[in-house]
Every structure is written in structure tokens, then in C-alpha cells.
Amino acid sequence: MSAVPEIMLNNGQAIPQFGFGVFLVEPGETVAAVAAALEAGYRHIDTAEGYGNEKEVGDAIRKSGLDRADVFVTSKLANGAHRPDDARRAFDASLQALGFDYLDLFLIHWPLPTRYDGDFVSTWRTLQEFYRDGRARSIGVSNFQAHHLRRLHTETEVMPAVNQIELHPYLTQDDLRRFCAEHQIAVEGWSPLGRGRVLADPEIVSIASRVGKTPAQVVLRWHIERGDIVFPKSVTPARIRENFAIFDFELSGEDVEAISALNRNERFGPDPDKFDMV
Length: 278
Ligand code: NAD
Fold this sequence. Notes:
Number of helices: 10
Number of strands: 10
Shape: globular
Mean pLDDT: 97
Low-confidence stretches: none
Structural class: alpha/beta
Bound molecules: nicotinamide-adenine-dinucleotide
Largest sheet: 8 strands, parallel
Strand content: 5-15%
């Protein structure tokens, strides 16, 4: 099986294009799930303070015997901690929970339009402190729309390395992906399988049977061909391995187009312009 490609971020750091997400993985299941992913070859783990399993992610990486430097780890700022002093404390707490002295990538989890007087710009400036002191090798945002990114562009000096957004065949986000490409922001797609809900789509099932792969593998390969970074979640070892086995085939341009044409702007998660839960 060939290696996972790397994407070069706008600050020169490399990120594995494919990883493992642990949203909704119970703390009690996390060590086993991350261990299964590392065993299968994943070297990129996506967690968040809000997932409640940072400690277990750190434990699993330590138990694996891999060097810390060999695993790319992302975490995200707690939604209740946008104000600068709170963000500083929250970042320290994430590092402490993980048991690491740095993160590969740290993100503002949500822009929270109705909280903090809409001021995600000072939060972004606070993340730049973690970047400058080396404790966050890269920093970025999640669930930012183009209008949020435009504010960072005009009001600050550093653009995010990544924007992590909901992305799957029913929500292809092509306008936002284009905006990110124009501003050298790498796109990470969350819920890359649409939480499993796109897998019974007849077009995807038909392509899968023609190329001899599973619907999940076809959808994940579609993301890879489009150049986005993804990290599907599963707690089932066979599925964890299945999802990783996508580097020994390619989709034709027509198949990529046919899957992109399934877009219906359908979100399975919250709308970033409305979501304000802390
Ligand atoms: P996903 O699209 O990865 O779907 C996961 C679900 O798909 C699993 O629970 C399982 O039911 C099913 N599945 C997985 N592999 C399968 C297979 N091979 N065959 C059939 N079904 C399969 O959804 P997700 O967990 O929401 O997203 C992935 C990751 O993205 C998360 O774990 C998290 O790291 C990140 N995320 C980030 C945000 C954010 O706001 N930044 C929000 C949601 C998720």
C-alpha cells in the first residue's frame, strides 16, 4: 500500500492528507480506536477540547511506541474560551491533557457569530502567540465562511494554514474551497462520509461496484482526488482499515465529476452562521 500524500501548508509545514477523527468517540473507546488507526498506518489524528478525549488520544500515541514527531495531532479551542486569557488557559489545558509540549495544528473550532460581540479576530491574534512561541506548529480555523476569512485577511497579518469545514458529496462547498485556494488556505473536510449518510447513494454504490471498492473508499478517494484533507471516524477496526485502504486505486475524472454533481448544499451539522453553543 502506498504512503499517504502530504499537503504543504502556507507556512511550509507538511500535513498528511489523510487521518483519523475522534468526534463522538467515547473516552473509554478512544485508546483502542486510535491504537487501531495507528496500527493501520494513520499518522494524523484530529481531536478537540470539546470531544473530551484529548487525554486518551495522547495516551494512545504514547502507548504506540511511535515518536511524537511521527504523528500529526490537531486540537481545537473550546468554544467557551475565545477571550484572549481564556484562550491561553484553554491552549495550556489541551497540551496538558494530551501530555504534549506542542501541537501540530490548533484551530478556532467555530466563529460563534453571536458570542463575544462577533470578535473572532482577537481570538485569532491570540492563536498567533502560540504559533510564534512554537507550541502550535501551525494554526488555523474551522467552520469559517468566506466573510469570516475576509476579516482575518484585512485585519491581521497571518492567514490561517487551514480551514476545517463540513464537506462531503452532498455539500461540496466549491465556492468556499475556491476562496481558500486563492488565499493559500488548505481545506480540511469534516464528516467526509456525511456521517455515513451518503454511502447508500445509487451513484456512489454504482461507482464502487464498478471499481471494486466499497462506497466509503470511493467517497474518501474522491476527497483525496479533489485535494482536500480528510479524517473519517470509526471505532470498528475493520472499517478503520477499510477507510485507510484507498491509496492503491484512482477514480477517473468522470467519476470525480459525477460524485461532485451529487451536491445539494445539504448540511448534516450546524450552520456556522448560526451555531453559537459554548
Ligand atoms: P464521518 O463522515 O467520518 O462519519 C463517521 C461515521 O461514518 C461513523 O460513525 C460510522 O457510522 C460511519 N462509517 C465510518 N467508516 C465507515 C465505513 N467504512 N463503512 C460504513 N460506514 C462507515 O463523520 P464525523 O465523525 O462527523 O467526521 C470525521 C471527523 O471530522 C470527526 O471525527 C472530527 O475529527 C471532525 N469533525 C470536526 C467538526 C468541526 O466542527 N470542526 C465537526 C464534526 C466532525
